[in-house]
Write a structure and sequence with these properties.
The protein has about 280 residues and is an alpha/beta fold. The protein has three domains: about 70 residues, Arc Repressor Mutant, subunit A; about 70 residues, Glutaredoxin (3-Layer(aba) Sandwich), CATH 3.40.30; about 80 residues, no CATH class. Helix content is about 40%, strand content about 10%. The strands form three sheets. It has a four-stranded mixed sheet, covered by helices on one side. Strands 1-2-3 form a three-stranded antiparallel sheet, with no helix packed on it. Strands 4-5 form a two-stranded parallel ribbon. Helix 1 packs across helix 3. The radius of gyration is 24 Å and the shape is globular.
């Protein structure tokens, strides 16, 4: 199936053309969900001059979620168009994460405020289910939605919940009502050691020295000699993992897994929140 389309120097201009499925046959639009101009305008205005790179997809989904309170099918289609990605790719990412609310055509969007109650083992033992029932009975369902959510890595302050982006530790109905009344639904960032302060204290000196004088083969061999292994269960040597990455001719990325998604594994959160460069 081919698309007859003329070139245009305006990357934001709507794509025009006729999709042909056979000799003498044609249709004025593609199959699948159609692009809505108003939704496309809203997405472009929201993204403004931000890059449209594929690795920023999650960030752009957050922008739409925070602006409209949910991800409508029209906005997902518009985002796919704007980022030159398939609708399947965008939808797959949007539906994978619990904090994104995908609303299909004909569905009612959720209330403006959502309370997510941690349902990890620690929070369940601390009364999360009873708290959920109390919130559902004590709050207006037309204004506040109460849902269960995966482990939030706050096992030391169970039961924990999140109102908007604000975490509430040792949560109770009374605490939740106070937060809602104050409109305190935004994230609270703890004091953390910034890059300049870390560098002033000698941070990243080893990295600078290795970049200046080091030999990557020596570093990789040191990892192998030290016996450093992954803790995922297989115990695979870290030095070999590094070798696999280096042998890849394509782009290389480092992912820091700070999910803390297993019961009781909140041990690193304190450091991740306050001294992040220690990990990097």
């Amino acid at each position: 199936m081919a698309l007859d389309n003329h070139d245009t120097s305006d990357a934001n201009a709507p794509r025009k053309g006729v999709w042909k499925s056979g000799k003498g046959k044609g249709r004025s639009q593609t199959k699948g969900r159609q692009l809505q101009e108003d939704a496309w305008d809203e997405v472009r205005a929201l993204l403004a001059d931000k890059p449209r790179r594929a690795d920023l997809l999650i960030e752009h989904l957050h922008l739409i979620q925070d602006k409209f309170g949910h991800l409508s099918a029209a906005h997902l289609r518009a985002l796919a168009e704007e980022m030159r990605m398939s609708m399947a790719e965008v939808y797959e990412v949007a539906t994978f994460y619990a904090h994104f609310d995908v609303v299909k055509e004909g569905e009612t969007p959720p209330p403006a405020l959502t309370i997510r109650i941690c349902d990890s083992l620690s929070c369940e033992l601390a009364g999360a289910q009873a708290l959920k029932t109390a919130l559902e009975d004590g709050l207006d369902a037309s204004e506040v939605r109460v849902v269960r959510a995966p482990c939030m890595g706050r096992c030391d302050t169970a039961p924990a919940l999140e109102i908007g982006h604000n975490f509430v530790d040792h949560a109770t109905l009374e605490k939740v009502k106070q937060v809602i009344a104050a409109g305190d639904t935004h994230v609270h960032m703890p004091d953390y050691e910034a890059f300049d302060a870390y560098v002033a204290g000698g941070g990243y000196e080893a990295l600078k020295k290795l970049r200046r004088d080091g030999d990557w083969e020596d570093v990789q061999q040191n990892l192998l000699d030290a016996g450093l292994r992954g803790l995922g269960g297989a115990g695979f040597p870290s030095g070999k993992k590094w070798g696999f990455v280096r042998d890849n001719a394509g782009p290389r990325y480092m992912a820091v897994n700070g999910d803390e998604g297993e019961p009781g594994t909140f041990k690193d959160r304190w450091y991740l929140e306050r001294v992040p460069h220690l990990f990097l």
